[in-house]
Design brief:
CATH class of the largest domain: Alpha Beta
Largest sheet: 6 strands, mixed
Distance between the termini: 51 Å
Strand content: 15-25%
Shape: globular
Order of helices and strands: EHEEHEEHEEHHHHEEEHHHEHEHEEHEHH
CATH architecture of the largest domain: 2-Layer Sandwich
Helix content: 25-40%
Number of helices: 15
Number of strands: 15
């Protein structure tokens, strides 16, 4: 939850109370969000209520304003990659031009397999040590942490192999081998991870140009990048990305090439900004792979920093906008967290238990009778957003006879399209032209997060104008 004092003059007392609360209970986590809010994280509802009470009465001793529970979401696109390089080539291209017109950025995006995404998400600390993103010291060499690197590399390959094996019945053996070759090339082109340089999103280096073509022939140079993450993970050796000898280049071409090399960090920074705040509700992206082609042109009479600031800043902003636009063009979806719920309930309250689970959008996995007792054990997945007050409601409907244990399980993608528009004949017959389509669960979650963050929300202020009355009618 986000906490702030009722009187802004008590902010110092609140900060001191939070420090004392953290000393008294080390399990409490206190962070400051990007919006400046003090966020208090606890182990559960009961723990959180106790922490807020202690903060009001014992530590800060001031009146507090406590927000509703904050729930994190993720953003992704629909579909999973089978042959990554071919799937990227078939994706919609998002093209954005910098303010001065010197750089054209083209972005493609696809969704990574779920096993690979979950592996990258769980291995953030290890990736930080290997790549050196979160270490205060210099990155470790591959000789120092070779065992960890080798283990992580093998787990990444196994995650893709298991995903291909699960689809072997749908595709032929020849296509399976072709997909394996494509994934090997894919792992050798990883430029960076994000957000935070260790997240579950991947930035690939641009594909090599076709044989016989030169980028400089039309007055532009491609920002090639370097597979730095692949080198650190051991998927490829250190490569020299110098494609042309300086002796064969003219002075203008050499300057343009050096300027393109200096923009590589701007492309990576734009990718990091885009993956940390998606287009739906400014939540981090999850399980996406981007290919960014930034073509720098020399056909400009003015220097790059004359219009709209420096060229590096323009490229960073343009890459961010292009990545967000690419996600919107490829059927975006919202991702929410799920708890694994283990319920114990008597036979007579089994129906009431299922009613509570249905109201919470839970998905029941199995139901079995416990041996030697009259209790049923029900396993289900409950969305994190629907878990607040779940225990109290369950005890109220079952007269205290049922108990539940909630443990975070995984991230799951909601299949509903937040921007659903009727297209087929059946949908048009049911919803009409789309003006009366009710908001689905995905759109409600997105609007709630956008409203909490102060972002624009598209909603009808007046539902039925003919039924509104603004003054009393007196006869």
């Amino acid at each position: 939850v986000a906490i702030e004092p009722s009187d802004p003059a008590d902010m110092g007392a609140l900060k001191k109370g939070l420090r004392q609360l953290n000393r008294a209970d080390p399990f409490v986590e206190v962070t400051v969000s990007a919006r400046g809010e003090h966020v208090l994280a606890a182990a559960g509802e009961v723990h959180l209520e106790r922490c807020v009470k202690d903060l009001k009465e014992r530590f800060a001793k001031v009146s507090l304003e406590v927000s509703p529970p904050l729930v994190s979401y993720r953003e992704t696109v629909q579909g999973e990659a089978l042959n990554p390089l071919d799937d990227l080539n078939g994706c919609c291209i998002s093209e954005v031009v910098t303010a001065n017109g010197r750089c054209v950025v083209r972005v493609r995006v696809m969704k990574l397999p779920t096993p690979l995404t979950e592996l990258l998400d769980k291995s953030c600390d290890l990736l930080g040590e290997i790549i050196g993103a979160k270490s205060k010291h210099a990155p470790k060499s591959l000789e120092e942490d070779g065992n960890q690197t080798e283990a992580l590399r093998k787990r990444m390959i196994d995650a893709v192999e298991n995903d291909l094996s699960s689809r072997a019945s749908d595709i032929g053996s020849d296509r399976i081998e072709k997909c394996r070759e494509s994934w090997r090339s894919f792992f050798g082109r990883i430029w960076a991870l994000g957000p935070g340089e260790v997240g579950p999103n991947i930035l690939l280096t641009p594909p090599p140009p076709p044989p016989g073509s030169e980028n400089s022939s039309n007055g532009s140079v491609l920002v090639n990048g370097r597979p730095y993450a692949s080198e650190r993970l051991g998927f490829c050796d250190n490569v020299d990305d110098t494609t042309c000898s300086s002796s064969t280049m003219g002075g203008d071409e050499m300057l343009l090439m050096k300027e393109a090399e200096s923009l590589e960090s701007s492309v990576v920074s734009g990718f990091q900004l885009a993956t940390s705040a998606g287009p739906l509700c400014d939540e981090p992206m999850w399980g996406l792979c981007f290919t960014v082609e930034a073509n720098l042109s020399r056909d400009s009479a003015s220097p790059g920093d004359q219009y709209g600031g420096s060229l590096g800043g323009q490229v960073m902003t343009t890459v961010k906008e292009a990545c967000r636009a690419a996600v919107l063009q490829n059927r975006p979806r919202i991702v929410e967290g799920f708890y694994f719920c283990e319920l114990s309930t008597p036979t007579e309250y089994l129906g009431s238990t299922y009613a509570v689970l249905a109201r919470r959008r839970a998905r029941v996995l199995k139901e079995e009778m416990q041996e030697g007792s009259a209790l049923f054990c029900v396993n289900a997945y409950v969305p994190v957003a629907e878990s607040f007050g779940f225990g109290d409601e369950l005890r109220r409907w079952t007269s205290g006879a049922s108990s539940a244990l909630l443990v975070f399980s995984h991230w799951g993608t909601l299949a509903e399209d937040p921007f659903f528009v009727p297209k087929t004949e059946e949908e048009i017959e049911e919803y009409g032209d789309g003006s009366n389509v009710p908001r689905n669960i995905s759109r409600k979650l997105i609007d709630a997060v956008r409203r909490r963050k102060g972002l624009a929300v598209e909603e009808k202020v007046v539902e039925h104008a003919t039924k509104q009355r603004t003054r009393a009618r007196k006869v």
